Amino acid sequence: MPVSPDVTGFFDPVTSTVTYLVADLVSRDAAIIDSVLDYEASSGRTSTQSADALLAEVAARGLKVAWILETHAHADHLTAAPYLKAKLGAPVGIGANIIAVQRHFGDVFNIAATLAPGGRDFDRLFAADEALSIGGISGRVMATPGHTPACVSYLFGNAAFVGDTLFMPDYGTARCDFPGGDAATLYRSIRRILALDPATRVFVGHDYAPGGRAHAWETTVRAQNEANVHVRQGISEAEFVTMRTARDATLGLPALILPSVQVNIRAGQLPPAESNGVAYLKIPLNAM
Length: 288
Known about the structure:
By secondary structure, this protein is of the alpha/beta class. It is 24% helix and 22% strand. It has 7 helices and 14 strands. It starts with 5 loop residues before the first strand and ends in a 24-residue tail after the last helix.
């Protein structure tokens, strides 16, 4: 039987994001998945309250963070990866197809010249099915594109961290209308996840608590196959693509997409300060 890692979820109510601290309690090695840098859009202020809560937990439990991982370049929150890296010394990893996302949004924000060639803003670009471990818990990186071309899921022991690819069964699946997104590709990615052992624990990247239920972020492959409102067993690829395309056409852009994407494609690095000592984010007009 696969080893079961210790998993602690940190829910950010502002962006409905769940950050995970995943640990091997024997070696005390750990990974952080999809961290959040607090950002107040009305003032342009950033803070590290969420990241500091993670760091306090790491210190209190005597953990050694081996990886800071991103499931994709998020469009709904800024990552705290550089801050955590500075505090912990751990490398930042993401799927290798981030280069395609950088290429597109580098042009949108006119920052392509500031991006390191070959995705080297990140410390590690993971290939599909690349092995990855936390202490004695072996795992691998699953390429799960569709929401974006660079989406990956991390499988450690009996736990899968799927980012935005899947949500809780009563909320369904990720949107596919971002550049490079594709509903048929997402369907096939999800089917690979749902082909895992039915007892595999599934940890989602967000929870929006439909119907006012309590927030939750852990489910199983079995539960997804039986009850996911978009991709449960018996729903065909054609049915999914029709549903997803129609649903995406009704969605507005995420509130923080403009600040988030231009920061997250640079592995979370904020723009350099200008001559007055202030850093500025860009707002492209009529480009999205």
